Amino acid sequence: MEAAQKQLAYLDLNKTKYSILHLEQSFHVGGNKCGGPLANRLHVQCHVMCVEALSQTDNSEIRNDDLFTAKFRDFYSDLYTTQPITADTIDGYLKNANIPHLSSIQVEEIDQPIRLEEVIAVIAHLKLHN
Question: Superkingdom of this entry's organism (predicted)?
Answer without folding.
Answer: Eukaryota
